[in-house]
Amino acid sequence: MASAAEQLASNLNFSTFAKAEDLKKRLWFTLGALLVYRLGTYIPLPGLNPDAFAQAFRGQSGGILGLFNMFSGGAVERMAIFALGIMPYISASIIVQLMTSVVPALEQLKKEGEQGRKIINQYTRYGTVLLGTAQAYAIAVGLESGNGLVNDPGWFFRISTVISLLGGTMFLMWLGEQITSRGIGNGISLIIFAGIVAHLPTALAGTLELGRTGALSTPLILAIIVMVVGVIALIVFVERAQRRLLIQYPKRQVGNRMFQGDTSHLPLKLNTSGVIPAIFASSLLLLPATLAGFANTATLPGWATTVVGALAHGQPLYMVLYGAMIAFFAFFYTAIVFNPKDTADNLKKHGGFIPGIRPGERTAEYIDYVLTRITVIGAAYLIFVCILPEVLIAQTGVPFYLGGTSLLIVVSVTLDTVAQIQGHLIAQQYEGLIKKSKLRGGKRGR
Question: Which of 285-316 are b and which e, b meaning 16 or more Cβ less than 10 Å from the residue's Cβ?
């Protein structure tokens, strides 16, 4: 089966794509949906002073606001209706996934298949509403506390801000689900991807402008380009890397016929946690600097000022904690999304086993052992990819969008989308081969 799929993939060409009408409809739908998202990042909140906010944002762009601005496609710096972006939905999804590991009722729903998944998705939407409402209200209060940011402070501004921001998030959640079902790729990931890619030309232009003014030397710019290409190549290699465990199925008898035992593989990704560890670590580390930026620095105690300074971009303590948090979340999130015991139980239920390993508990222990070892490599890879650009940003002032987290998201989403496009083309070609074989069989019958 694998060799047949590889042979079909090797035969794909432009004519195959030209005949794939369903795929082209999906691509056009995805592009249209992303265009709607980009337009929404330019619609400002009502009652806001845009000039005053732009000046205030420039002073806070190095904190967590800069990270959220990257994920929202620049909507935060314009304080648009999509300023919250899709982050409340992502946070709610992670919280619900955490709860499915500790709450027996949710864990049972997870095992009930499609019906249970629908109920869990509904809980995720409720969580998105709660988180989005709390964050939108906090933003409204924070904007009112700023000097001249709001034209007419009061409850009307707070309510309108909550409705606008929460409505924007819920619309993006719905749009992402529509892209996933009617378009190509994961809709939520593509929305984040579109926001980052939209600002990459600005980041590149900013880097070239630094070179023109002499702030960056030409050899350093070339070194940055080489580093970015090298990091992209590393991300592509590791994200596609797998540790395949050999699975064997015994011979089985159906009626009077004996079927030969089959073999397959259990693929374990080298980086099971994806980009989640980098996002969480960045958010937590940038939070103190952002809170200190909103507070009056004169009222902060001396120890708080010292801590905020030590946690600034490029500082040794920031780098050490950043790497440690990435490693922690890599193991933590992998343990959530992959359960060796459930995998071992499913293998045992279907008669599969790993050669030399007893089915059941011993198989779960072996899978957990292998998964732990490859997660060490995956965590080290994430730390390297995220820390190296951070050092470069701190030393040279390269724009934030060229960081490791943004490159990791862009490359990972691109790989996933291309794989889905290739899957649709293979399915199209496979259906064409089946139709041809049926036609030939009908002619022979005549």
Answer: bbebbbebbeeeeeeeeeeeeeebeebbbeee
pLDDT (tens digit, 9 = 90+) per residue, 31-51? 999 999 999 888 888 888 777
CA distance 198 to 203: 10
pLDDT (tens digit per residue) in 262-296 = 788 888 888 888 888 887 787 777 666 656 555 55
213-235: average pLDDT: 81
- The C-alpha atoms of residue 73 and residue 87 are separated, in whole angstroms, by 12
Pinpoint the alpha helices (H) of 20-113.
21-40, 50-60, 64-71, 87-102, 104-110
10 Å Cβ neighbour count for 428? 19
| pLDDT classification of 239: cutoffs 50, 70, 90 | confident
| DSSP class per residue in 364-431 | HHHHHHHHHHHHHHHHHHHHHHHHHHHHHHHHH---GGGSHHHHHHHHHHHHHHHHHHHHHHHHHHHH
* SS3 of residue 195 by DSSP: helix
Extract the tokens encoding 432.
């064409």
Neighbour tally for 157: CB within 10 Å: 20
Q: Which amino acid is at 126?
A: Y
In this prediction, residues 382-398 reach a mean pLDDT of 75
**Which positions ≥6 away from 143 have C-beta within 8 Å?**
48, 53, 79, 149, 150, 157, 161
CA 19 and chain centroid, separation: 31
Helix axes 361-396, 340-349, angle to 10 degrees: 140
CA dist., res. 170 & res. 82, Å (int): 10
Count of CB atoms situated within 10 Å of the CB of 59: 11
Please list the helix, strand and coil fractions of the chain in percent, rounded to the nearest 5, in that order: 75, 5, 20
- Distance of alpha carbon 145 from alpha carbon 277, whole angstroms: 32
CA distances in angstroms from 247 to 6, 70, 265, listed in the order given: 21, 42, 5
pLDDT at 434 over 70: no
Residues contacting 307, CB < 8 A, separation 6+: 288
